[in-house]
What does this fold into?
Amino acid sequence: LKLSLRVPGFECAPPAMAPFRLVVAALAACSCIGSVAGRCWESSSRSIKGPFVPHRQDVSEADGWQEALRLLMRDGAVVLTGLVDSAAEEDFRALAGSLPARLFDGTSGQGVRLLSPNAPVNGVHEELREAKRRGLYEPGSGLEPHTDGYVYGDDLPDFVFLLCERASARGGANVLLDGVALLDAVEAGNPADRGLAAWLNSTSVDLSEGGDTGITVGRAAEGPIVQWHTTASGRSRLKWRRQVNVGLTKRLAMWKPLAEESSEEVAAKRCSEVASPSYLSLWRPLPSTTGAGAASEVESKLRDFDAWIQQASAVAFSEQSFSLSRGEALVVDNYRVLHGRAPYAPPRDEQAGGGDASAGAQNDERRFWRVWSWTSEGTGVPPDGALSSNPLNDEVFGDKQGAPSRTDL
It folds into this structure.
């Protein structure tokens, strides 16, 4: 007997000739998993759009890079495969650093030119060790959907590359949230939702990372949350951004590393939390917003939109997550698409209560490499150049008093 049962985002397939009791158990497990997604959808009367799983493109094929760029520009994200020989030793830092120039080489006909060919590569696993030292991260913690490089203010990178050297042993799946689809859903809602959509496009708010929230003191930025600009190639491109308050996200189910629970059980808890969500985003009324009534109205609109995002995010974690394997790279349109990470099982010595990652722990730690990229399709490179792909870089982002920068990861 061979059984293959699909539920959106999951597949349960017992081995061929499985005993009947295992088949029954598999059906029960799939039913439970499916109900997780159902609870997310049923927790809101809204039409939730935005979560998606990107296409995979083998760039070793003829015209593979060109097709990958086409998919990225169409969908907002793509997974690059065929980058490495699975049996070969690889310098993953060097490989990650080569990806932007190979994708944006100017020969695809898409009109995209790389403006940051020397942008540094950052080891996310190394960054997380530093974040743990600063009390900003617990090994194995998940991360709500967000925009990378928020600390750069208006000069944030327009594309992000994440290359997997070693996936986590359990958990750690990725999620994506397409801003175009999410905003389409808001505009298609009831009159109040349509009013919210118009407000998001027209009302300026503080878009900076503020130190009073316990996050990095980022570069100043203000404007509407939803912005559209015409690119050098003539496209109309969405630019929106979101970063989350790490102090509040520590209270969520997604923060706790995987231990005894399954990824599906954590996703179910996150679905339950969005029934009465706390405000997680960093957007705030501008100081020039005078009067208690005016400020309260802005805060109400911000909470409403944050609730939309949290509901869409919960759906993404419950039924639209995906994983990267060794040698695969996720490329994200950082202006358009939020990305997040499900919690995962930390390295063995961390599970045993060890301190900083030892050599043994590093043999099974989750290892990813990141590059922030700026292209001709964006609104510009930072005035001081593309100096960092790491939000904890104190030389670039440290405050005037020399205190360490702090950011969520």
Notes: The chain has twelve helices and 15 strands. Residues 1-37, 357-361, 400-409 have pLDDT under 50 and may be disordered. The first helix runs from residue 20 to 42. The radius of gyration is 21 Å.
